[in-house]
Structure to design on (133 residues):
């Protein structure tokens, strides 16, 4: 049984990897941080299409938060000056805006600094992962 949450990101994306390195170095959430390509997705209760689609925060109890909510959870976990920002991201109106901004960034991450064609989000056929929010 895990005792810490796990932050799961796309290790094939240079932009995502840079963000994860920043989070590890500066934000320091109380979690493990791993690319989905090296994570035991079955043990985490996460599908590969969802891991490809969005950043994930998996609690020790198996609750999975994705996208902007995952960002909020990691900020809350970090404490210090980061937790208030995480709390703001959970407020209803801010949460909706954060979701839109997260999707805009995620859907265009190949165009952002450090992004490459490998960063492009490729949606799997079928229903999109649910909004976690």
């Amino acid at each position: 049984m895990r005792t810490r949450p796990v932050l799961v990101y796309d290790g094939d994306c240079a932009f995502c990897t840079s963000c994860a390195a920043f989070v590890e170095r500066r934000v320091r959430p109380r979690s493990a941080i791993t690319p989905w390509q090296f994570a035991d997705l079955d043990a985490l209760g996460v599908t590969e299409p969802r891991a490809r689609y969005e950043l994930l925060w998996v609690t020790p109890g198996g609750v999975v938060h994705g996208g902007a909510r995952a960002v909020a959870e990691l900020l809350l976990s970090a404490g210090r000056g980061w937790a208030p920002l995480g709390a703001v991201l959970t407020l209803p109106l801010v949460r909706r805006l954060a979701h839109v901004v997260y999707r805009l960034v995620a859907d265009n991450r190949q165009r952002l600094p450090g992004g490459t064609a490998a960063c492009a989000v490729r949606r799997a056929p079928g229903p999109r992962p649910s909004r976690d929010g």
Observations:
- The radius of gyration is 14 Å.
